[in-house]
Amino acid sequence: MSKIENYLGVDIGSSNIRVVMAQEVSSEETLRVLGAIMLPAEGMRRGTVIDPEAVSKVLLKAFAHAERMSGVSPSIIGVGISGVDIFSQKSLGVIAVGRSDGEVTEDDIDRAMGEVEARVMLPANREVLHVIPKSYRLDDQKDIKDPLGMRGVRLEVESFVVGTSTAQMKGVSRIFESMGVGADFFAVEPIAAAEGVLNTKQKELGVVLIDIGGSTTSVIVFEEGELVHVAVLPVGGGHITNDIAIGLRTSVETAEAVKTTYGNALSREVGKKEEINLGDIDSHETEFVSRHHVAEIIEARTEEIFHLVNDELKKVGREGLLPAGAVLTGGGALLPGVVDLAKDILRLPSHIGYPKPLGGIVDQVDSSDFATAVGMVLLCKERKGASKTAGALGSRRAVAFPKWMEDSGKKIHGWVAKFLP
Question: Quick check: is 122 in a domain?
């Protein structure tokens, strides 16, 4: 009988922290969600850690809740890395096949992937997190998806390298060290969100996933099953809230309530005579404001977000050219009218993306804003089997520690027990 594994996926966002505990009973069965929680984030700004102690306090509460809800401790912990410091670039690795008979082995492929990382010219303040192969070349044979077992002399691999700043990685690392917890691996959140939502057909046809978070918007593009582009934009749903607060001259808390209760990203769908009584939201407020005006504020900022997304698509020559369209996730995608506005500006079929079907208490995670956390538990499962099969992105090295963290401490048994009531 196979060992039961418990996976903990962690999404540390600017506005909220989400944690999902899922269990794998067997490799043939769907993961079972055992526990999930979302708590307001503290100590984060634009996806970057600015107060590790504040973040750790929220994480401890979330972990304690997940363990209490599920009744188990995690076997593998996967942590999403966000922020505007995320970068991506192409790189080429070239090696000589090791065996005298020219047969390509796992060791050859690993050495080629390692050569990719070694050739990446990065400033000292950046870290590689993912090395994702696009295609291999063995002597004169091009566009090979998996060269294992083939014969040749010279092996080349064209890869996509994704990473973030060393400061961001060390900031997140310090959080887990202070908690006495060793995270098993890190993955940039756009990749985790894509794993949580997108299917193989969408990636083959060509698709852009747009994750609208609190302070940032992540963009990840796939075509022919390959990763094409990753970017993080410094604008998100929190900026919409701030715009409303300024426009209505009210508090950010009241503006957020106005946005979530009465907001619409398409002003044409809101009557010009409709009004909002701010007193229903905050007893200190006495004014009535135009709901149409609120929609205009939301529309202006959401248009900006999608124009910035379109600029990213232009960079890689995919503007208006992705048959599977745009898939929207994150809290910002839940506003009425956002999907139609995306269709108008991106000129692509668009819809809200929901996490892939799982077992267990799925109602806890059946929302687009849990896309990244669900993706992290799926990557946990992938990491467990990485030695046997290639990853979901086609890479045996799709998720990894930065070099400086490879020898970090293991998880402490009962690490959350002292925080339970």
Answer: yes
CA 58 to chain centre: 19
Three-state DSSP class for 39?
Answer: strand
Residue 309 near residue 230 (C-beta atoms within 8 A): no
- Residues with Cβ < 8 Å from 310, sequence gap 6 or more? 319, 345, 346
Pairing of strands 44-45, 48-49: antiparallel
Range(s) of the domain holding residue 48: 5-84+166-195+355-409
List of E strands, 202-325 = 207-212, 217-223, 226-233, 275-277, 288-290
Radius of gyration of the chain (CA): 22
For residues 122 and 128, the answer to whether their CB atoms sit within 8 Å is yes
234 and 348 assigned to the same domain: yes
Q: What are 4-39's pLDDT values in tens digits?
A: 899 999 999 888 999 999 999 887 788 999 999 999
Residues contacting residue 73 through CB under 8 Å, at least 6 positions apart = 6, 67, 413, 414, 415, 416
Give me the number of domains the chain comprises. 3
> Contact at 8 Å (CB) between 168 and 83?
yes
Q: Which pLDDT value is given to residue 45?
A: 83
Residue 275 lies in a domain: yes
328 and 279 both lie in a single domain: yes
Same domain (yes/no): 366, 403: yes
Whole-number pLDDT of residue 397: 41
Task: Count CB neighbours of 144 within 10 A.
Answer: 18
Residues 139 and 103 in one domain: yes
| DSSP 8-state symbol, 389 | S
Say what the pTM is: 0.87
Q: Are residue 312 and residue 398 in the same domain, yes or no?
A: no
Examine the domain organization and report whether 218 and 346 are in the same domain.
yes
Task: Report the pLDDT value the prediction gives residue 2, as an integer from 0 to 100.
Answer: 62
Rounded (5°) CA angle 218-219-225: 135
Closest CA to 190 of 157, 159, 163: 163
Decide: helix, strand or coil at residue 183: coil
Intervals of the chain under pLDDT 50: 1, 387-421
Domain-embedded: residue 27: yes
* pLDDT for 394: 39
374, 235: one domain: no
Q: In the 8-state DSSP scheme, what is residue 201?
A: H
Dihedral angle computed from the Cα positions of residues 36, 40, 46 and 52, in that order, rounded to the nearest 10 degrees: -90
pLDDT attached to residue 324: 97
